[in-house]
Amino acid sequence: MTQGNSSPTHGPTIVVEDDRTGTSAASLRRAFLDHVHFSRGRPFERASPADKYHALALLARDRVVRRWTRTISAYAARDVKQVYYLSAEYLPGRLLVNNLINLGLLDDVKRVTAELGLEFADLCEVEPDAGLGNGGLGRLAACFLDSMATLGIPGMGYGIRYEYGIFEQAVRGGNQVEKPDEWLRFGNPWEFERPDRAVRVRFYGRTSRYVDAQGRSRVQWVDTHEVVGVPYDTPVIGYGRPNVNTLTLWSARASEEFDLDVFNAGDYERAVYDKTRSETISKVLYPNDSVQVGRELRLKQQYFFVACSIADLVRRHLAAHRSFANFADRVAIQLNDTHPSIAIPELMRVLVDEHALGWDDAWKITQATFAYTNHTLMSEALERWSVTLFERLLPRHLEIIYEINHRFLRQVQIRYPNDDARVARLSLIEEGPGGKNVRMAHLAVVGSHSVNGVAELHTRLLKADVLRDFGQLYPERFNNKTNGVTPRRWLLQCNPRLSGLIASRIGRGFMTDLGELERLRPLVGDTAFLEEVTAVKRANKVDFARFLRQTMELKVDPSSAFDVQVKRIHEYKRQLLNALGVIALYLRLRRGQAALPAPITVFFGGKSAPGYVAAKLIIRLIHGIAEVINQDRAADGLRVHFLPNYRVSLAERIIPAADISEQISTAGKEASGTGNMKFSMNGALTLGTLDGANIEIRDAVGHDAFFLFGLTAEEVAQKRAEGYRPARHYEEDAELREVLDLVKSGFFSPEDRTLFHPLIDELLRGDTYMLLADFRAYVDARDKVLEAYARPEAWAHLCLRNIAAMGPFSSDRAIREYANDIWRASPVDVELPSYEAETPHPRPLPSV
Question: Which one is catalytic: 94, 330, 678, 744?
């Protein structure tokens, strides 16, 4: 750093811009060119787009590190309470633009690259999506980390550095084809490998009891197989403040590289067998668990990252404190669903076996430290692990779980004498004809001081149904924390036109206080402003149409209503209902029954789990429908497209362009949803059921600004209880019958006329997710949406009301609630270097 003189003659020291991390145009230009040359080893004129992208990323990373180290020092100096967020999934997406926005440098970097003759947008396209999650769960975790840094809440995320993330989806002949997602092929410029913090993790083996020097009975876990977990730290940058938190992802390495004796003897494959087996743990996101080997690997993954994380955070605590007496006052651990719930017996093992705490003291600390977020209402999705598998893979943890269960059930028996049925329902161990299983959700509830749902309906149904006995036993533990999304990525970054328009009227405070959007409400009667909102949407649609033409060779009409359903393909999310509704529209057009009020383009996107046969059939049906409709002149005004390989970066393009947001899951099945929030925030109107956070969105935007259809959760349950007969709807609704018969006839699969029989047969026999019961209401509701879209001024009025009402759906609000109600964690201010503090932060909103 260059400094002026400091003397009575020359006056006080003047700190000028740091040469390494300066933010002037000259510093940014030099940093970029230096990284191309010195970090990538290429002369500028011969550097590839990947070289230039990496140079930009390193330029940004350099400017983060000083804030990062200051943040770490500030947290340590003040001995603050740290929040540790444990999640098996993270979907951060691309980081370059997001990080430049949070640094306030996006426009400056764009200007520098333009002066060098480079297209900034092309360089951004080089960056792969970090697809370390399946969908909403992982994206929520990324939003939460962004909000924790932005609010100044001291915290870290822990997860797995999967070598291959969620697969890359291709479509061949209408069928999903999975290809490896090699997101690390060219390296990851955002992370720092930390081998000095490596952790040894044990599996298998047996337990051995002994008496220690104080005469206490103790347990050892011996004869184990060891794996090394190496942490990779990624900085998570706050917006509008200098705090930088950390996401630590663990990579599995062999404890021994290979057996040299075996290698020298010529058996090369066996020499590296252990290395290969160990490193498989962090190889791929969610291995197929339909076979025993896959189930074992998935449990290994969960324990691996949990054991590494517990070891790391315990090390951090003991570096500052001599004992565990104040552990729960300085540490909060949030379990993001049941995947990391093995952390509860792991912390007990560390406290009791490794640090010789008594059971009661260890259990008190454990319960006070952990909190559990539930993300599902479907009992079949609540994790259960075979006791046999547990006993072989994690024998000590099974013993601890049995001890937890023994003590817990004794409390239940005292509270509810002679109620054996309740005891069986509450037990952490499920006993049935298929053998014994460990109920991981039960473990999470018993071992935590807080259990939260993620939408008001979800939390209510958790207490009343899924975890009813626990809700009665521990009513004080249950609370609601409705999900939210970060407005930095899902408004400012993905929709700069709209965020710029909003800022021109109400200022930019909404980016850190989304409640400021309420100030748009008086403008719903301002015709000129509504026209500007409409112009923004039109421009976004034109951009998206251009993107589809350039990347997928799809021609779409930007003047049509963009009707969008993009999410994981699952029967309860009811993409099949949408597809059946599209067929109904098509048949009406073919008959000339009625013209569409407005042209409509229906977009589907999402991935099916590799082993999910029904979901893959739904994808194939959508393609069959699209193939017929898109070449039939009788269907003018109706087009259907499936967008392959749906991911965060594609979501950032389609959400700002969407007119209609399809949120049509069976009521009582979706925990919350966050896509519904992103679409509404960007001015799309929801066609949806009373499920998850849809209910709260509808209440916020107004019932007339939300197109509701379908049964309620209570009506779904009642129909089931009364003996639901789906064939009755087939018999009584002629249009539904025509649609189902057409699918079953093979019209959309001429090469195999029986291909879709399993889908139709399931609907007529069982219809688990009530598609036929909701079909008529859904078709009628879509008609109303198209009629509304055909009235542009009224439609714009409803769009603006949606945008203005989105304040409660910020992840900042959700994190404030977690911090205040569950974690008891307070914000910490971090000081910037003096030369940076001179620069207003954040800078003006980035341009388009």
Answer: 678
